[in-house]
Amino acid sequence: MTRERNLVTEYLARVEGEGAMEVRLRDGQVEDVKLRIYEPPRFFEAFLRGRRYTEVPDITARICGICPVAYQVSSCNAMEDAAGVAVTQPIADLRRILYCGEWVESHALHVFMLHAPDFLGYGSGFEMARDHRDLVESALRLKKAGNELMRVIGGREIHPINVRVGGFYRAPTRAELAPVVEQLKEAREFAREAVAWTASLPCPDFEEEFEFVALRHPEVYAIESGRLASSSGLDIGPAEYEEHFAEDHVPHSTALHSRLRSTGSAYLCGPLARYALNREKLSPLALEAADAAGLERVCRNPFRSIVVRAVEILYAIDEALRLLEGYEPFDPAAVEVPPRAATGSGWSEAPRGALWHRYRIEEDGTIAEAKIVPPTSQNQARIEQSMYGFVQGHADLPDDELHLRCEQAVRAYDPCISCATHFLKLEIDRG
Amino acid sequence: MRAKPSLAVWKFASCDGCQLSILDCEEELLPLAGEIDIAYFLEAGRAAVEREYDVSIVEGSVTTPHDAERIREIRARSRRLIAIGACATAGGIQALRNFADVDDFVSVVYASPQYISTLQESTPSSDHVLVDFELQGCPPNKHQVLEVINAFLNERRPAIGSHSVCVECKRRGNVCVMVAHGTPCLGPVTHAGCGALCPTYNRGCYGCFGPMEDPNADSLAAWMKTHGVEERDVVRMYRAFYANAEPFRSHAG
Q: Most distant CA pair in chain B: distance in Å?
């Protein structure tokens, strides 16, 4: 007799945005796994048409409240590419410091409030705080240090107002930055301990072969600039993106799935990819903490991504402090970026992975066309693929337990569904 | 001992930033969680309880038939309903569709438009249900979010001013960017709450807290035009994060 099991996780909790997951098993064999997204479409790429190019960083920030700086910086990179203008080193450095703040804030939220409760059997960070008050308080202080960096440089943590095409409206003074330097130094101590702590969490034994894709920079751990690299040797600039990556509308899928054109296969971007491709560019302190925690050179276990995020938090604090040490305010705070008829592409490493933008701009600076490919959209196909193997390996679990484990497995990838401008609604197949 | 009041946080079409502003109250978060029963907050936890709530906070705008139904269900289960942010109080940046044909928008972004279920307009909660309080801002000020939660849990009126950003600028002692530098600024018509952030960073206000109470949007638009701002740039300024809010809407083309 054929026995069919359908599991539907109606609302995925502790992911940013709203999504659900469907799993179909027949006679114990996985037939189908779907990550269903019902985040209503907001049509950014459509209403960006007709806007002035200088408005774009303020508008695209609103795609994601958790990683607005990623959208602002990728937009600015694309506009500056279109104009054929490069920003000065002090501007580039200040952008990187601001971006470090976002990595700390976003990763701290995911590691401690969204992901860690799964390892310890709590339903939320609030529940976890009842038994681990000191830990959660320290984690919130860590998150606050990242937020403070964004507040001082960007004006506020969510949708910063100080980022513009060409640089900033005003470079903060050393006096404004001094208190946040102290906060970051204190946070760095906790971040070191946090790497060891995340590595000590009981972690499911689950490894996957991934094609990793991330930005790479010759000197530093790539954040706000670089070329795009992959585990199989890709090395391209932002204008070449569409030659190498395709966004397909796959039958029975909720999303436009990104694939590598060369192999047709899904790939992974984000912390695991960055760490695998750029590990040697980490600061000595971050490397030492990773080694001491026993983090392998290439981590293929998505559940262990919590350790990689902790390493990246430590690195981002360390890097911000390094750059802040020699910081001097500069004026003018931006370079001129005059409009011209051109197409510009730009990207950066959002906390969840590479974020690519392309704009076609008319002579007077009006946006004629916009295209945005966020990391969660890129990872979608790979997450689903990974879930097949995961579900198969746990198919003997009772429904409620399998349910929870699947939810945890999806959360390990830190999907940000608000970001994913490309998700489609799915017609539910009830088998 | 009286039962802890229950709080629910609901998401509609949005960037999640408003919910994040609650999680960004780092110092106040755990004390707050101790005083109340956080009964539904998907971004923070998996406890999803179908029940009545003392206070519901809504983020995001209504853009789908399903969400138009859901906001009514939430209202029916909530003693008080508070809308926070530009999306829930005015339709948000995605309300730019209200000035276009949404089918055109769908075909720009999606290869298979037949899979997209969406309404022609992006609308605030108050277009669908009775809203007890609206807190403006994209994103709202997190201290004001706390004040509003605190006020409703203690059954008092929130202390949120309805004056313009200009007043905040004067309080900070900022030089007026419009008078001194000729920088176009929506400060005179924009609701306070941000602390006059943009002028403090040498830029004009771009109106992300929406219209203040009874703004004179006509006068400001005329002033900007006499100072060399092109008509279409005036339209762009009003047609942004609060494009759908009435006092800005009439200037948004």
A: 64
Q: In angstroms, rounded to a whole number, what is the distance separating the alpha carbons of residues B61 and A94?
A: 34
CA A142 to chain B, closest CA, distance in angstroms equals 9
β-bridge mates for residue A305, sequence order:
none
- B-facing residues of A in 113-142 (CB < 8 A) are 113-114, 117, 123-127, 129, 133, 136-137, 140-141
Average pLDDT over residues A97-119: 94
Q: With H, G, I as helix, E, B as strand and everything else as coil, classify residue B6.
A: strand
Write the CB contacts of A170 (distance below 8 Å, at least 6 apart in sequence). A162, A333, B201, B202
> Which one-letter DSSP state was computed for residue A110?
I
Cβ neighbours of residue A223 under 8 Å, at least 6 residues apart? A96, A99, A100, A103, A215, A316, A319, A348, A349
Handedness of CA A47, A160, B204, B62 (dihedral sign): positive
Instruction: Kindly state whether residue A262 falls inside one of the protein's structural domains.
Output: yes
Interface of A with B in 13-32 (CB under 8 A): 13-18
User: N- to C-terminal Cα distance for chain A?
Assistant: 16
Q: Residue A116: which of A355, A329, A411 has the closest Cα?
A: A411
CATH of B6-153, one of 3.40.50.700, 3.90.550.10, 3.40.710.10, 1.10.150.20: 3.40.50.700
With 70 as the cut, is the pLDDT of residue A172 above it? yes
Contact call for A62 and B241, based on CB within 8 A: yes
* Mean pLDDT on A134-156: 97
ipTM: 0.95
Residue B206 carries which side chain, given as an amino acid letter? Y
> Is residue A195, in this structure, part of any structural domain at all?
yes
Which residues of chain B neighbour A58 with C-beta distances below 8 Å?
206, 208, 240
In a domain, A425, yes or no: no
**At which residue do the structure tokens 């269900």 appear?**
B73
Q: What is the DSSP letter of A395?
A: T
Q: Do B200 and A155 touch (CB under 8 A)?
A: yes
At B104 the three-state DSSP class reads helix
Contacts of A133 in chain B (CB under 8 A): 30
pLDDT classification of A252: cutoffs 50, 70, 90: very low
Residue B92: its chain A contacts at CB < 8 A? 62
Q: How far apart are CA A307 and CA A380, in angstroms?
A: 22
pLDDT confidence of residue A424: 30
Query: Which amino acid makes up residue A127?
Result: E
**What is the b/e burial string over A190-210, where b = at least 16 CB atoms within 10 angstroms of the residue's CB?**
bbbebbebbbeeeebebeeeb
User: CB–CB of B94 and A156 under 8 A?
Assistant: no
Distance from CA of B38 to the nearest CA of A (A): 9
- Measured CA to CA, the distance from residue B127 to residue B98 in angstroms comes to 14
